[in-house]
Specification:
The chain is an alpha+beta fold. The strands form two sheets. An eight-stranded mixed sheet has the order 2-3-4-1-5-8-7-6, covered by helices on one side. Strands 10-11-12-9-13-16-15-14 form an eight-stranded mixed sheet, covered by helices on one side. The protein starts with 11 loop residues before the first strand and ends with a strand. It has five helices and 16 strands.
Length: 256
């Protein structure tokens, strides 16, 4: 295992959870991933929890904002793309057909954050590193491993990311006549763009790695969650599952 020390412009670098019950989420994801936690207070008297795998920071569980709590919003996983210049990305967003939902705003000395809306839907975080660059592990058990954007406008979404980050793109034709697109940085595939079907909800599907996907799915159920997509009967490397935590947060798993 090699700890990450940086992410290139346009790479997914971080995923975090916003939830109405941080303590319950800690219990759930601690059971699924074996995470340990460090509590940090917020200015409003609440706290969020840093999540670690063997001492390496891999995610954060944060409280929802008051508006989300009042609306009864389900827990939500967010994905962030590394950005060399968050301000420039935000300025280019409108020209690329998207919308800036929030920021850019400095988060202390840890970095600069923004949230963008992709054409066709799909809120995407942008992170310009300060003292925090992203997950210390990637594509390992308990850490962010992959992300796919489901969208009714895949061509517009791909063009959006190419405009903002200069991604190269590989297309994989599908049997239904559509195409699965992968965004690439320095010749490596870093994220997928998937045409959504009618009735599907647009947005990011985020994957965390697990060593034993059947065991992780069973742990999710034992911890009070639900398995939305069951793993293969005989899972192996690359096998997938999707779980929902007790607060409605949806996360996919991949055996690595």
């Amino acid at each position: 295992m090699t700890a990450r020390t940086q992410y290139s412009n346009g790479e997914p670098c971080w995923a975090d959870l916003q939830t109405r019950d941080v303590e319950a989420a800690k219990a759930f994801y601690g059971r699924v991933f074996g995470w340990s936690f460090e509590e940090l207070p917020t200015p409003d008297g609440r706290s969020y929890a840093k999540a670690f795998v063997d001492g390496d920071l891999v995610s954060v569980i944060a409280p929802q904002n008051p508006q989300q709590e009042a609306a009864g919003t389900n827990a939500q996983w967010n994905i962030y793309f590394a950005a060399d210049d968050a301000q420039a990305i935000a300025e280019d967003t409108v020209h690329a057909g998207g919308t800036v939902q929030f920021g850019p705003e400095a988060v202390g000395d840890t970095g600069i954050m923004a949230f963008l809306e992709v054409p066709g839907g799909g809120t995407t975080g942008i992170w310009q590193a300060g003292t925090h660059f992203g997950s210390r592990r990637f594509n390992e058990p308990g850490a962010l491993a992959w992300a796919e954007l489901f969208t009714p406008e895949p061509r517009a979404a791909v063009g959006f990311f190419q405009t903002l980050f200069g991604h190269e793109v590989t297309e994989y034709p599908q049997d239904d006549g559509g195409s699965y697109s992968t965004l690439m940085v320095d010749g490596e595939e870093v994220a997928g763009v998937v045409p959504s079907e009618e009735g599907d909800e647009e947005g990011w599907q985020i994957y965390f790695g697990v060593a034993d996907i059947a065991g992780a799915a069973a742990a999710a159920v034992q911890a009070g969650g639900e398995v939305l997509v069951e793993p293969d009967a005989t899972p192996g490397h690359g096998s997938l599952a999707t779980i929902m935590d007790p607060q409605g947060g949806i996360l996919s798993l991949i055996q690595v």
